[in-house]
Amino acid sequence: MSLDLEAARLIAAAIAVLAGLIVPIGQGNVAAKAIEAIARQPEARGHITSTMFIGCALSETSGIYGLLISIIILFAM
Amino acid sequence: MDFNIRNFGVVNIGGIEVWVTETLVNTWMIMAVLVAFAIIVRVKIKKWTEVPEGKFQNTVEAIVETFDNFVKSSAGSKLSYLGPWFFTVFCFILLSNISGLVYGTRPPTADWACTFAFALATFFLIQYAGLRYQGTKYLKSFIEPVVFFFPLNVIGELARPISLSFRLFGNLLAGMLLMTMLYEMTPIFLKFLVPVPLHIYFDLVAGILQTYVFCILSLSFIGAVAETE
């Protein structure tokens, strides 16, 4: 059985975007730990929140890469 | 559906082809808005007083002070001279992120050229801060722990502006793609109703959050390099 090229391209794009499956787990972990820290030390709320945003943004990177690879496969190849 | 960046024409300046794309036009429109706003503020505060009197001067000073404190808290107080630059970047990226609220406008930050320019500026600021505050120690940090790690360290350094620009670009592009698809899918009599809540998320919430993330990540990269123990 042979796939034609267009179908293979679409399947490849779909596989690439699967990188976004694991990202929400990591971001949820970051947010949960931040909430725990705020509950323990409510006065450090500002610092914890800004650090949480940095952590969320950094853990988001791999998901963004998957999205970009799938977009490149779809529109630029 | 057409997701590509539209091209309005090609201008030939001294043998160099300049493509007038949608991104370029939208960038200049946002710049015009920012410059007009700045000129209006400048004219209004002609009679500047040492102690703020009017409501207007108070507001302007509060905004500038808030941003200065943000820079100081995330990059360190000796880097407070970066405040004006990052305030400009913040205003521009914020305005271009939420410019998707105007029907059919493609945000300039949904073009990699735009975000990569900002990330490249951050990259040069990182190198400048490292050389200024650490000197030869910064150059030495490239061959640590052993000399063979030099290529890896260089690649890690070069990956920083790329990941920084892809983060902003990917978020904005995803929002724009979803909004375009939604506008294509909804029937004509629902076009004014269905996309509104999604506009609030993809343009307002994600736009403001990504602007904040871009600024705070740049500032903490620069601050981490400038730190001398």
Key features of this structure:
heterodimer, A: 77 residues, mainly alpha, F1FO ATP Synthase, 3 helices, rod-shaped, B: 229 residues, two-stranded antiparallel ribbon
Which helices and strands appear, and what pairs or packs with what?
The complex is a heterodimer of chains A (77) and B (229).
Chain A: H1 5-16, H2 23-40, H3 45-75
Chain B: E1 7-13, E2 16-21, H1 22-44, H2 55-75, H3 83-97, H4 112-133, H5 136-140, H6 150-185, H7 195-226
Antiparallel strand pairs in B: 1-2
Helix pairs in contact in B: 1-3, 2-3, 3-7, 4-6, 4-7, 6-7
Characterise the protein shown here.
The complex is a heterodimer of chains A (77) and B (229). Chain A has 77 residues and is mainly alpha-helical. Chain A has one domain (10-75): F1FO ATP Synthase, CATH 1.20.20. Chain A has helices at 5-16, 23-40, 45-75. The mean pLDDT of chain A is 88. With 229 residues, chain B is mostly helical. In chain B, helix 1 packs across helix 3 (83-97), helix 4 (112-133) runs parallel beside helix 7 and helix 6 packs antiparallel against helix 7. The longest helix of chain B is centred in the last third of the chain and has 36 residues, at 150-185. Chain B is globular, with a radius of gyration of 21 Å. The mean pLDDT of chain B is 86.
